[in-house]
Design brief:
By secondary structure, the protein is of the alpha+beta class. It folds into four domains: about 15-80, no CATH class; about 95-170, no CATH class; about 175-245, no CATH class; about 260-355, Isoleucyl-tRNA Synthetase, Domain 1 (Orthogonal Bundle), CATH 1.10.730.10. The protein contains twelve helices and 13 strands. Helix 11 (about 320-340) runs antiparallel to helix 12 (about 345-355).
Length: about 350
């Protein structure tokens, strides 16, 4: 099966549903090696595979062990006998390097009938998409219909060749862009190694939790790849990670495709953008999902107007009152600690309470 590393037949029909169905169809004996905690399986009466955790049976040397604990014990046994070893399978998908669409980074490969697949020479990089391409509604990748891009010469034999028309997803760029910040104006190389090793890793990386199983995997992968080829010395791209929550409206995550997006321009024109910032920070801890609320925006707008009025209506004086000064210093200390701890909502609540 393709999802098991290089491919495998699991061959435990009592505990894998696909193997169970295969064994039943071809009358292959079914033998249980894991029993539920409080009863024993009868393979002859089983109607489906038992795929939960349980107690090991019919496994000399491991009988009576919890199946979860037996995994490590069996692995150690196999390694000692030199029959196998523990490995980690990283499920990196190649779809980032194979998008059938016009936008995205062109893959620098051409195909020649004589030479086969040939990489574009370094001196001819980057391969740039045409700016004046006219789109027409067709099936498949529109880039395939762009003759001035597709038709080219083979770098080896100078015969007729065709460019690769699949493009790389923007995830490829976002997987290493932070390294370019270390040396943004370098026109000769990806970045200067000394500069990148000086600035990296990033102290605090703030991202959305929706990227936890995509972008955050790939940007670690790219960092380790660049380390392996000698461009970086760091092993991880950042010291600390903070995942911010998602913004919802009407019970669903805000999305253009769902039509429930609140445009910043609209809020800015009506209330000023500081109102939107205050509302989003005040509503909940930054790591929590929040629901957009028009009434909450109105409340934030009224509060900011009160703060603004303190200065414009000359309600502030230069007179120092010891008791008030002590409270102010206490508030400054507490707000500073809350901001440094990514607890913006608590800092704003304190400010609103002391208005």
């Amino acid at each position: 099966m393709y999802e098991y590393g290089t491919g495998a037949i699991i061959a435990v029909p009592a505990h894998d549903q696909r193997d169970f169905e295969f064994a039943k169809k071809y009358d292959i004996p079914v033998k249980a090696v894991i029993n539920p905690a409080d009863w024993e399986l009868n393979p002859a009466k089983m109607t489906r595979a038992f795929m939960d955790e349980g107690i090991m049976v019919n496994s000399p040397g491991f009988d009576g062990m919890k199946s979860k604990d037996a995994i490590g014990a069996i692995t150690a046994f196999l390694e000692k006998k030199k029959c196998g070893k523990e490995t980690v399978q990283y499920k990196l998908r190649d779809w980032l390097i194979s998008r059938q669409r016009f936008w995205g980074c062109p893959i620098p490969v051409v195909y020649c009938a004589t030479c086969g697949a040939v990489p574009v020479p370094y001196g001819e990089l980057p391969v740039v998409l045409p700016d004046d391409f006219k789109f027409v509604h067709t099936e498949g990748n529109p880039l395939e219909n762009c003759k001035e891009f597709v038709e080219t010469k083979c770098p080896k034999c100078r015969g007729n060749a065709r460019r690769e028309t699949d493009t790389m997803d923007t995830f490829v760029d976002s997987s290493w862009y932070f390294l370019r910040y270390c040396d943004a104006h370098n026109a000769k190389e990806i970045f200067d190694k000394k500069k990148a090793n000086y600035w990296m890793p990033v102290d605090l990386y703030i991202g959305g939790k929706e990227h936890a199983t995509m972008h955050l995997i790939y940007f670690r992968f790219f960092t380790k790849f660049l380390r392996d080829i000698g461009l970086l010395k760091v092993d991880e791209p950042n010291y600390h990670l903070f995942n911010q929550g998602m913004l919802h409206k009407n019970g669903a995550v805000m999305s253009k495709s769902k039509g429930n997006v609140v445009l910043q321009e609209e809020i800015s024109v009506k209330y000023g953008i500081d109102t939107a910032r205050f509302f989003l920070m005040f509503l909940a801890s930054p790591d929590k999902d929040v629901e957009w609320d028009d009434n909450g925006v109105e409340g934030s707008f009224r509060f900011l107007n009160k703060v603004y009025a303190l200065g414009t209506e000359k309600k502030l004086t230069g007179k120092v009152i010891a008791k008030q000064e002590s409270r102010i210093h206490g508030a400054i200390k507490e707000v500073t600690e809350q901001i440094e701890g990514m607890k913006y909502n608590l800092a704003l609540i304190l400010g609103e309470a002391g208005e």
